[in-house]
Amino acid sequence: MNDDARVEGDQQSAGAWLEPTAALSRFVPPQTDRSRDPTGRIGTVRYGFRIGGIGLLVRPETLCEVIPQVTTYPLPNTPNWVAGLINLRGNLVPVLDLHLRFGVTVAAEQKRTLLVLDRGESAVGLYADGLPQAVMTQRALAELPPLPAALRDHVQKGYVDEGVVWLEFSHADFFSSLGERLGAGQTARSAALANEG
Amino acid sequence: MAIKKVLVCDDSGPDRANLERIVAGTGCTVISAANGKEALAKARAEKPDMIFLDILMPEMDGYETCRMLANDPETKHIPVIFVTSKSARADRVWAQMQGGKGYIAKPFQDKDVVAELQGAH
Fold first, then answer.
1. Do B67 and A146 touch (CB under 8 A)?
2. Residue range A46-62, pLDDT digits in tens
3. In angstroms, rounded to a whole number, what is the distance separating the alpha carbons of residues A39 and B1?
4. How far is B93 from chain A (nearest CA, A)?
5. Per the structure, how many domains does chain B have?
6. Which residues does chain B have within 8 Å of residue A103's beta carbon, measured at their own beta carbons?
7. pLDDT of residue B119
8. Angle at which helices B110-119 and B13-25 pack, to 10 degrees?
């Protein structure tokens, strides 16, 4: 780009503010397939988060945002693992408590963090133990350990790093299946109410 | 804490009997369960001081049993020792993440079980 074009572009951007969602959609997650993680170890680096005793890897290129201090509004007539909704820059985002879904306890020494995966219509929030962390995915598991039933169909493989087992899970499929489950529950409740009426 | 009462859970009869023999030999009272659900019920009713838990069992595996024990205020304090044929390092790591306080790989010797009982003192 020459200097004239740059100046013209700057003038345009100075006059027109982007919508927050549009601004966010310009964000490109950092390349995770680097040769060295922040602590200097060499290999493939991914990011993961903990739900109790379960480590889950975020897929490469997934937008993962840590949300500080935000009010979660509970949703009536939903399972206990639906924590509620948050308003994230004008978008209503469902928040799940996967500890309850997986039947695991929160690690006592960890502070709960609200993470939002993906953006727009696909965005889903969840409570994790502590912050996401860099994970080296060099040592793949020969076979997966027995997993909680809710997770079993959504995990493809696993890795060991620094004394933690990290599971490669398809969060989009997982959240879709939870959405279908919620939808089926609502339909059954509506039918029951109609029968009572 | 002195271990006086121990719950042994294994779906394999011979393995369960072997564990019962070793634990009883230390003077502890032994309670037995043949699956995870039975172990949960007996843990709530009997309040053992320690649980030896197999991992690969039908209906409810040892990890799920351990997670449910950890979620119950009445049983979450009970140390769980996994006893299993799965002996890879990753299995040990996963067992610890699921709340296991110890890990014994099959086949084991009597002293391995006794060491876990003594280690809890």
1. no
2. 899 999 989 999 888 88
3. 40
4. 6
5. 1
6. 64, 67-68, 71
7. 83
8. 60
Q: How far is A50 from chain B (nearest CA, A)?
A: 10
- pLDDT over 80 at B43, yes or no: yes
CA distance A191 to A194: 5
Evaluate whether B62 touches B36 at the Cβ level (below 8 Å).
yes
Residue A192 is inside which H or E element, if any? helix A171-196
Report the C-alpha gap between B1 and B49 in whole angstroms: 8
Residues above pLDDT 90, as percent of chain A: 39
- Antiparallel, parallel or unpaired: β A124-136 and A112-117: antiparallel
Residue A123's Cβ-count burial label (10 Å; 0-12, 13-18, 19+) is: buried
> In CATH, what number is assigned to the domain containing residue B112?
3.40.50.2300
**Domains along chain A?**
26-196 (2.40.50.180)
Pick B71's closest partner by Cβ from A55, A105, A164.
A105
Put simply, the answer to whether A160 touches B55 (Cβ < 8 Å) is no
CB-CB contact of A36 with A42 (8 Å) = yes
Using an 8 Å CB-CB cutoff, list chain B residues near A81: none
Measure B98 CA to nearest chain A CA, in Å. Answer: 5
Cβ atoms < 10 Å from Cβ of B106: 15
Structural domain for B50, as ranges: 5-119
Contact yes or no for B94 and A145 at CB 8 A: yes
Question: Worst-scoring range by mean pLDDT, A135-139, B34-38, B67-71?
Answer: A135-139
Residue A5 has pLDDT above 60, yes or no: no
